[in-house]
Each structure stands twice: as C-alpha cells, then as structure tokens.
C-alpha cells in the first residue's frame, strides 16, 4: 500500500481529546485514529453528495413522465452536444 503524508497543526486540547479517544478505542496510535476518522467521514460525505434517494411515489411519477416524454427537440439535442463537448 502506498502511503501519503499529512502534516497538520491543531489546538492542544483537541490533540489531548483525540489521544484519549485513541486509547479508549484501543487503537495503536493517534495516526490510526485520524486515518479511521478521515476514511469513515470522507466515505459518508461522498455518498451524501453522489447518492440521491427519493420516495417511491416520486420515483414512480418520474418514471411515468419519462415514459410519456416526446423525442428531444433540436434545442435539447444541441444543449446535450454542448455539455458533452465542454465536459459538463
């Protein structure tokens, strides 16, 4: 596993609390605690921003609207082409 280095400065009180939490969790080091927190939190944050959950009735209405949709007009086709060409 390739590792990267992260140097941080933090308030002494925060460090003391983090060291206590590390010990209470039975972790080997403050680094292990920080890495665990970063991994869990970043995974959660990414999921929140990349996932959409909708109620069943709203999803059903969306699917119904999609099924009834007409073929795209020239303006929509052009907008799609524009976004693809510009990496949007």
UniProtKB/TrEMBL annotation:
InterPro entries: Ribbon_hlx_hlx (IPR010985), TacA_1-like (IPR014795). One of its GO terms (biological process) is regulation of DNA-templated transcription. The keyword Transmembrane helix does not apply. It comes from the Bacteria. Gene3D superfamilies: Single helix bin. Keywords: Toxin-antitoxin system. Belongs to the TacA antitoxin family. This is DUF1778 domain-containing protein. It comes from Desulfotignum phosphitoxidans DSM 13687. The lineage of its organism: Bacteria, Pseudomonadati, Thermodesulfobacteriota, Desulfobacteria, Desulfobacterales.
